[in-house]
Each structure stands twice: as structure tokens, then as C-alpha cells.
Amino acid sequence: MLTALGIVAITGLLLLGFTLLRRRSPAVLRSIEAFERLNHVIGLAVENGTRLHISLGRGNLFTRGGSALAGLAMLRRLAERTSVSDRPPIVTSGDPTLAILSQDTLQAGYKAAGTEEQYRLNTGRLTGLTPFSYAAGTIPVTRDENVSANVMIGDFGAEAALLVEAADRKNTYLIAASDNLVAQSIMYAAAQHPLIGEELFASGAYVGAGASHEASLQVQDILRWVVIVVIGVGSLLKLVGIL
Amino acid sequence: MRYLTAAVAIASGFVILLGYLYPLEALTQLRFMLTDWVVVIAAMAVLVGIANLVFVQMEKIRKQEKNSIYGVVLVGALLVTLVIGILGGLLGIDNTFMNFFVEAVIVPVEASLMAILAVTLVYASIRLLRRRTDVMTVIFLVAAILFLVAVMPTPIGTIGDFLPILQFFSMFSDGGARGLLIGIALGTLLTGLRVLFGIDRPYGGN
User: Fold this and answer.
1) What is the ipTM of this complex?
2) Nearest to B205 among A16, A104, A220 (CB)
3) Domain assignment present for B181
4) How many CB atoms lie within 10 A of CB B55?
5) Is residue B177 part of a domain?
């Protein structure tokens, strides 16, 4: 347990250090087509008066908190950028706590953009409490609410296939990311622009959420190399019979 | 106010984390108490969420939006189930009606959605070749077909049991899955720390 505490403490220090560093000199990020297209599509949605639909999945803060929080961080930035649109973005979730947080985050985004009066309570919605009821409640949003771009980011399961299919049928842009391996494989097969693995957690940095998100990516890279070295050395030691 | 919410959230986060990683008796007690509070608040959030669901549907019905008839069905079914559930609880009647609603409506509907899902996935896989024809797509589809064949039941058992080469290939998929999970774990750790340090604040209107 103390080792775990040490890892958390060191990671925290690295995060704070790199955040300070990134405030002085922003990072240069590798190009990910999904995010480049997303930035373009957001601009188009604002100009032609269509909506953005952000689907945060079913992750609650007890079990799948990481992906839910990453989705909220992205939502905050997207809300700010689309707040001038005639049609505000719609956020759907499959968990009540996440739905409440999404409403709060949307409102905060509008407030930061100075357009708080544009915020509507019914733009942050709970659409279902079970996986398929969530999908069944979310599909009509994609279909009937003049949506031109869908962002699926969070914890999804197999029901992601139905959501992706609905977006595809309407010929809308779709960027899809999940922390669930089943959903990732489905999204890889079905979505136009799937994000694989930890790319989900890079979303904040790519939509301009700030230095801390860029710093997170750098710390993730460092930790990934540490894990690779530990696995490699561990395998070698096992091979020669020391471990 | 926003500083207060941030301070409370950060302090609670640190107590839970320390109580989990450094199990002192006092910290553990505090952790359990905070977790109990969270359970109560989450239960209240379900009620708020359902109220939001009803509010959105009522708005659709009021404005006579497209397909608002489904909203009428949803609100109606919700009210009927709610009344039966509350009356059943108050009068001490057994759950026959509730079980009927679950077994005769929810289970078949979800099962049929699962069936649609199977067709959707086959269609998506075929469409993948048209949309992205590259090496990774071919590897993905070949691997998917290989493993589907391997786990397919036959009169002599699953084919995978007789083909050691498939077990060899599963080594790659297991390794890949673990790699993805490690990446996700690192991302989750960093996201959690950002919230813990108050850098990201998905609460209190910040």
C-alpha cells in the first residue's frame, strides 16, 4: 500500500511540475485526425445552426470515474466553444450523477463564455438507467434533434454499436472513445473516427483544455516508459531465474 | 462559495485516497462515513435524474415535437410503475406486478435490442472494409473471424481446443488488451489527480 501511495505522490508531483512548465511553453501534440476533424466540425455546427451531441456514457464516479471525468473535461471546453450557437449542444448520460455533473459543467462553460442566459436545463439529459435503455433514449437525440456531430466519450458497453449505427445512418460526424475494451473494438469496427486506448484521456489537451491536460499526457508517456522498462526487466529476471 | 466547494471536494478526495492507501483506523472510519454519504447522495441523484427525464419528455409533448408519442408512453409507464411500486411497498403486497413488468416488458425488449446488436455488428464489420481498407483493418477482421471460429460450438467441442495455433494467437490479443488497459489505468490516474488537486473541477459551476 505504501508503494502505491509513493507512486501516486510521485505522479502528482510530476503532474504539478509539468503543468507549471507547460504554462510557459505549450506542448506540440502529434496529429490525431479525429480531433482535427472535430475542431473543424464544431466550427461548421456553430455556423450552420446545427447541434453538437455529446454522449458521456454510463460511467459513474464510483466505478468508471476516469472516463466520466475525461468526458466532462472535454464537455466543459466544447460547451464554451459552442455557446454562441443558436442551437446549444445536447449532452446525454446513462447515470444520474453524471447527468447532474454534465448540467453543471455545461452551465459553467456558458458562464465562462459570458453567455449564461443561453443555458437550458434540458440540454443535459439522463436518457436511461440500463445499457440498452440508455441507447434507446439516446438514439432519438441523434436522429431528431438536428445534430450534425456526435461525440461519444466515456464508459460504454456493447450498446455503443447501436449509437454508432444511429449516427452513421444520419450521416453525421462521429468521434468515439471508451475505456471499455468491448466498446473500443466495436467503435474501431463501426465508427468513422475511433480513439483507441488512452487517446480518450488526451481529448482535453486536443480541444485546448489547458496546460494541465498537456502535462497529463507527458506524465502518462513517462509512466508508460517506466512500465515498459519494469515489464522488460521483470521478464529478463524471470528468464534467468532470479525472480 | 466556489472556493468552499473546491476545498470540501479536495479534502474529501484526499481523505478517501489516504484511507484506502494508508489504512489508519481513524482514516478508514472517515472513509467509510464519507462513502456512506456518497451512497445516500447517489440515491437522491437517481430521483433528480428521473425528474430530468420526465421534464425533458414533458417538454417534448408540450411542444408536440416529432415522435413525442414515445414520451407519452414513457411518462405513462413511469407513473404506473411508480404508483404500483409505492402502493406495493406501503400495503405490503408482494412484487407480482413489478416482476411482471420486468419479465414481460423490460427483459424481452432488452433481449431484442441485443439481437439487433448482433446484426449491427456484422453489418459494421462488412462496412469497415469499404470505409478503411488498410493493413490494420484486415488484421482486425481476420483476427475477429479466427476467434469466432475458435469459440464456435461444434458436436466435437470448440475448435479452438484442437488448434494450438489459435492459443498462440490469443497471446497477442491478451498482450494487446493488457497494453490498452495499462494505458487506460495511467490515464485514469492522471485524470483523478487533476480533480484531486482542484485543477479540473467538474462541480460547483467552475
Assistant:
1) 0.90
2) A104
3) yes
4) 13
5) yes
